[in-house]
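Appendix C. Worked example: J domain-containing protein
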Amino acid sequence: MSSTEHLYYQSIRILGIAEGATPREMKDSYRRLSKKYHPDVFYGDSGEKFKAINAAYSYLKKHPEPPKKLYEANAQPVYQDHYREEQRKRYWAKKRKERELKEQMFKMIFLRVRIIIIVITLVNIGLVADYFLLSTEKQR
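Step 2, the predicted output written as structure tokens:
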């Protein structure tokens, strides 16, 4: 919260009015409170409350509208840039994860294919050996 926002909200709290109150409401509240807490009438705090009421009213006379929040003026570009950057990071992280999963999948497939090829090769070697052993026995 900026200092102008803080002063505005502190002032409306001191005067006991709502945000965006009309100048007439501000003036009525100021008059009511200044009569109640005037140092000649209210002896409790040696005029501190009265000074705060005067300061709040003088601030609100100069600044009757609530201050624009800093993010309202340039919220979209800042928010959009931040959002785009976050989306870009998520997108590339997702792509990197997909690439890693594909690599793992291909490694698993090729490992299984190699095992199958080795088994088939061993079976074929066994069949060829059996064929030649049988054919040599028949020749004897």
